[in-house]
User: Which sequence fits this backbone?
């Protein structure tokens, strides 16, 4: 069973702080990694993808990948109350559909 | 922008009814997926399709079937709805993987708005 693990949270951070969301995966053959944001009652929205080791920045979001340690993380700088949502980590191996974690709930408090 | 639409946002059906959920994407994506999402269980793959008339079972196909007669449309069918099929159903589409082969999951997936189905 290929596992994608996330802490369910809630992770609470004050407005303006850095939120750090982590994800570990069990399949060493995984090649593609994605972060989705899901607001309550809505569908997942893709916010970041990363394919190689290191950091990838997009605006206030930074994805970090370490294949040797089998983890991927998402940093949100200058967190805003509108960032409050559940963040889903998704991992894929060629030939398989995305394998999703159960998500981490983030609460940004004013 | 990728647009994935689903036929209904909310649906209420009775036990034993045949239920059709429709999904349409407008980005000429090869791959399409059906998931269900339940509290505490996360997203679970029901079926996927990598080409017209092609389909593959996901993790929980029991009680469901699918149809893909046209590239842009992927339908999920509940042959005889049961109360344990009450859930949020999400459709997604994705382009081919970067290698050009239909490497499912290598490319990002885009989700429709979801259909919240209640079976009574």
Assistant:
């Amino acid at each position: 069973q290929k596992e994608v693990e996330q802490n369910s949270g809630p992770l609470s951070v004050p407005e303006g702080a850095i939120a750090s969301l982590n994800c570990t995966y069990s399949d060493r053959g995984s090649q593609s990694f994605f972060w989705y944001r899901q607001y309550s009652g809505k569908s997942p929205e893709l916010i970041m993808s990363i394919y190689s080791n290191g950091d990838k920045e997009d605006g206030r979001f930074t994805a970090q990948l370490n294949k040797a340690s089998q983890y991927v993380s998402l940093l949100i700088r200058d967190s805003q109350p509108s960032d409050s949502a559940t963040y889903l980590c998704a991992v894929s191996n060629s030939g398989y559909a995305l394998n999703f974690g159960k998500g981490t709930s983030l609460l940004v408090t004013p | 922008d990728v647009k994935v639409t689903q036929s209904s946002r909310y649906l209420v059906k009775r036990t034993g009814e045949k239920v059709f959920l429709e999904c349409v994407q407008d980005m000429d994506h090869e791959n399409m997926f059906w998931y269900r999402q339940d509290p505490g269980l996360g997203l679970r793959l029901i079926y996927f399709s990598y080409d017209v008339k092609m389909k593959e079972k996901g993790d929980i196909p029991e009680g469901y079937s699918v149809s893909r007669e046209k590239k842009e449309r992927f339908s999920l069918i509940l042959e005889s709805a049961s109360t344990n099929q009450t859930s949020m159903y999400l459709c997604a589409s994705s382009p081919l993987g970067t290698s050009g082969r239909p490497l499912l999951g290598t490319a990002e997936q885009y989700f429709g708005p979801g259909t919240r189905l209640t079976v009574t």
